[in-house]
Specification:
The complex is a heterodimer. By secondary structure, chain A is mostly helical. Helix content of chain A is 81%, strand content 0%. Chain B folds into 2 domains: 218 residues, Rossmann fold; 69 residues, Alpha-Beta Plaits (2-Layer Sandwich). Classes of the chains: A mainly alpha, B alpha/beta. Bound molecules: adenosine-5'-diphosphate (ADP) and magnesium ion.
């Protein structure tokens, strides 16, 4: 299909752009170091004495992503606008959707790669015990979907500005909200004075609430739909913002 | 091929393009002239579909660029102002991307890239990163991208900007040659390009078309068009002026230069007497030694200045908010 081949062409270019700068390698190394450090040192992997990754490893992901994903997404549109290549891209015989989706997919694949490179941790648990690998796989899937949601939010902030740093900061703030809405200390504070329905509404917007099921190995379609709808909504908003700039 | 009708673009309170209509056919090279901020780039961005018009329509090859953008864009090659290109790619990678997004694959893609690399002399920098290219090469890389799919319509925003004189010459030649089979519109503020490249020119000022015609037609609008310049020796300015003032065909005359060797003067005709002015002037100064006598063709820069002067005079503070990126 024509649309799909345009999306592929754009995604290919975007992925190439990641690996033509040292940023991609730096990102992957930082992600792996953080994962290792938090799992084995801070997360108390050895002390827990269980062959499970749920807490020591995946618990940290919403927080790692808070800084790492906006760093991956910040250049997507800000750089196009700063250099002016957006004028080339959006006058090619493609629709803006194809460009938006192509760019998003490239970055999402990049995050998938970073995530996949944490496999030595999985090998380690399997060596030390006999974990439920189905649960681990579900948690990986959830983690990747969550990264996609963060990334789509970063697409919005990247389209809002020509400055990558501004995009980064704004997107960290947005993503922080997505975490805190379901972060246990915040939820406890909130349930102290708010009605239960309000607490539920707020926590239902949180990535933590929806990531929880995946970590337990439960694939709930509502959780999948939650992440996918954040992605779709954010990409749609990105399109609206880009159109707004051009309309002047 | 390109039809622009009553095009308007409003940015906030500013009418950047204010009711522009024109058309460009195959085989034409239309020069788009005007001072900075006149609305040239904005018009071109609406033609290529980068920004939507506030009012009016653009069709390219019969396709409305708002209603039916994709088929319209397939026909267009576009070189945006400042020739942007992906800095993180090599020239080869960039052209490959541009070819693929134009739907070229395999052999067709290889041939197309080979062709533009030759036309734009990019061979030596093919594997260099765009970021490290000199301005001339970066410009030609973006230019190459615009002709990759051999488009029927070319929209070039200041295609010779930032090039050295040799490169300017090359690019002008290229545009002129391609103009034989395409519809080309290009913007410039270099007036000599109008003569060397264009078959027709439009002067735009503050969003409006103020002149539209062949270079000759435009030149004829200049004040000096049809005037006679002469140099005679052995006479003083006052005597010459007096003799010229008696001619019925002369509106006025001006002394351009006077020294011990002689006088240079310019004589402006009354309306509709251009052709005979030179002869009557020659007869009037009989007996003196004529060293030079010719009829002026008119000058484009004069036309340009006289048409757009009110704006250029207060241009100093014109803060250009540009590039809707
Ligand atoms: N995105 C925009 N927002 C606001 N004003 C703009 C924008 N783009 C152009 N303008 C204004 O429109 C006018 C025409 O600009 P432009 O078309 O770039 O002129 P030219 O290319 O002839 O130099 C200028 O005054 C410019 O400041
Ligand atoms: Mg311009």
């Amino acid at each position: 299909m024509n649309a799909w081949s345009n999306i592929k062409t754009i995604a290919k270019r975007e992925l190439g752009a990641y690996f033509s700068s040292p940023l991609a390698y730096v990102f992957i190394v930082i992600f792996l170091l953080l994962s290792g450090f938090f799992t084995f040192m801070v997360g108390g992997f050895f002390e827990i004495g269980q062959a499970s990754l749920a807490h020591p490893f995946f618990d940290w992901h919403p927080w790692f992503y808070l800084f790492l994903v906006p760093a991956v997404g910040m250049r997507l549109w800000a750089e196009e606008r700063r250099v002016g290549t957006i004028e080339l891209l959006l006058t090619m015989p493609i629709t803006p959707w194809q460009a938006i989706v192509g760019k998003f997919l490239a970055s999402w694949l990049f995050l998938a790669l970073a995530l996949a490179l944490t496999f030595p941790i999985v090998i380690t648990v399997n060596y030390l015990g006999s974990p439920d690998n189905g649960v681990i796989l579900a948690a990986y899937l959830g983690s990747w979907l969550m990264a996609g949601a963060y990334l789509a939010v970063s697409c919005i902030t990247s389209a809002m500005t020509r400055t990558q740093v501004v995009s980064f900061i704004v997107s960290v703030v947005f993503c922080l909200f997505l975490i805190l809405a379901g972060f246990p200390p915040v939820v406890r504070l909130l349930s102290g004075w708010a009605q239960p329905w309000l607490v539920d509404t707020v926590t239902s917007f949180s990535v933590i609430t929806h990531f929880d099921g995946f970590q337990k190995g439960v694939l709930d379609s509502r959780d999948v739909i939650f992440f996918l709808s954040i992605i779709v909504f954010s990409l749609f908003t990105t399109g609206v913002i880009l159109r707004g700039h051009r309309a002047g | 091929m390109i039809k622009v009708q009553d095009l308007v673009k409003v940015f906030g309170a500013k009418r950047a393009v204010d009711g522009v209509s024109f058309s460009v056919e195959r085989g034409e090279v239309l020069g788009f002239l005007g001072p900075n901020g006149a609305g040239k780039s904005t018009t071109m961005r609406m033609i290529t579909g980068f920004i939507p018009p506030t009012a009016g329509t653009v069709t390219v090859g019969g396709f409305d660029t708002v209603e039916n953008p994709i088929p319209a864009r397939r026909l267009i090659g576009y070189l945006p102002e400042n020739a942007p290109a992906y800095t993180d790619m090599t020239v080869a990678g960039f052209l490959n991307f541009a070819a693929e997004i134009r739907g070229l694959r395999g052999d067709a893609k290889r041939k197309a890239i080979h062709r533009v690399v030759e036309m734009c002399f990019l061979e030596p920098v093919m594997h260099q990163s765009v970021e490290t290219l000199s301005k001339g090469y970066r410009h030609r890389t973006c230019f190459a991208q615009s002709i990759l799919h051999d488009p029927e319509v070319l929209v070039l925003d200041e295609p010779t900007d930032g090039l050295d004189p040799n490169q300017k010459h090359e690019v002008r030649g290229l545009i002129r040659r391609m103009g034989a089979s395409k519809a080309i519109i290009f913007s410039t503020h270099i007036l000599e390009e109008v003569d060397t490249v264009c078959s027709r020119a439009i002067i735009i000022d503050r969003g409006r078309i103020v002149a539209n015609g062949t270079p000759e037609e435009l030149r004829r609008k200049s004040e000096s068009a049809g005037a006679v310049t002469l140099r005679v020796s052995g006479v003083n300015g006052a005597a010459l002026s007096q003799r010229l003032a008696q001619l019925s065909t002369v509106k006025r005359s001006a002394i351009l230069e006077e020294d011990s060797a002689g006088v240079t003067a310019r004589v402006f005709p009354k309306p509709a007497v251009n052709a005979v002015l030179a002869r009557s002037v020659a007869e009037a100064v009989q007996g003196w030694r004529i060293e030079e006598l010719h009829t002026e063709e008119g000058r484009l820069d004069e036309v340009f200045r006289s048409i757009t002067m009110p704006e250029t005079a207060k241009m100093g503070g014109e803060g250009d908010r540009k590039n809707p990126r």
